[in-house]
């Protein structure tokens, strides 16, 4: 192999797509996002296998599940069961969307396998609650599965923003179900059920892990593509609804039961879902995001969206994101050192050039 001709090298440099001074090219940003997600996934897999490898049939004492829950609690469980029946669609569509990205596509396969256990857990819960016959549960499942869930967005950043909110909402639903099953929800003390509490807590831990994974993905997008990501987040928040609400028969009675049991409603969504997501992204409030989006729309957007980006910096804390992304790369570095990747092909943080340093 001969050394490259210096002229050819210079020519290659000339042809490199011009990025504004101090900013990384789109290719470089995409590479960094994908390296970060891939490193995160390898770490995630190790934790998932070590700590969350539970079995939906054997991890719970199903025969001891109560059979006399109140109608509202039963309706809630039936609703959870219904939402999780669309797992094959959620998984298939996300794998397809990210199939070219090593870490993210492998994560979607793993995520689908974890969500599939949730579907089977709620299937078992419905059967053992015995308020519906096994035939009824099977027929209901067939009915739900006769319609395929369709992806709401064809854009990877919007899809990621959506799952961040959705996973946090799901986690909150299960955490509050666990509280209810521990007899801690006013008016529903008589529904206390240790088996249900154990089941809901177990799933809530998975949902927290999913939320954190998607949140890190969204932070990477936000760090390397702030304007585009804030626009995407703004749109997703504007039309957010729980998944499958269009497909589940009599969804309203499920939503009503969630509100009545204090498990989930508009107040919980605003305070414990949306505000938490915004806090984790360095955004003060929904109103601040609205204002920033409005202000940025008055600024002409060039090829790079640079001017818009500087308008966004007035209402969200870019340093929060930069610190979070640095922490992510440090976590990945630690995991890679355990395996030996650090000496071979380390994942290295590169500043976006948009921060203060
Ligand atoms: Fe789930
Ligand atoms: Fe999940």
General description of the model:
The chain has 357 residues and is mainly α. It has a single domain (25-282, 317-339), classed as Ribonucleotide Reductase, subunit A (Orthogonal Bundle). The chain is 68% helix and 0% strand. It contains 15 helices and no strands. The model has no long low-confidence stretch (mean pLDDT 91). One fe (ii) ion binds next to helix 7 and helix 8.
Count of DSSP strands: 0
State the CATH architecture. Answer: Orthogonal Bundle
* Helicity range: 55-70%
Residue fraction in strands: under 5%
Main beta sheet strand tally, sense and closure: none
The value of Rg in angstroms is 23 Å
On the 0 to 100 scale, the average pLDDT is 91
Identify low-pLDDT runs.
none
> Could you say which small molecules are bound to this protein?
fe (ii) ion
Distance between the termini: 41 Å
CATH homologous superfamily assignment:
Ribonucleotide Reductase, subunit A
Q: What is the SS-derived class?
A: mainly alpha
CATH class: Mainly Alpha
Number of domains: 1
Question: SSE order in H/E notation?
Answer: HHHHHHHHHHHHHHH
Stated plainly, the CATH topology is called Ribonucleotide Reductase, subunit A
Total count of helical runs of at least 4 residues = 15
Shape: globular
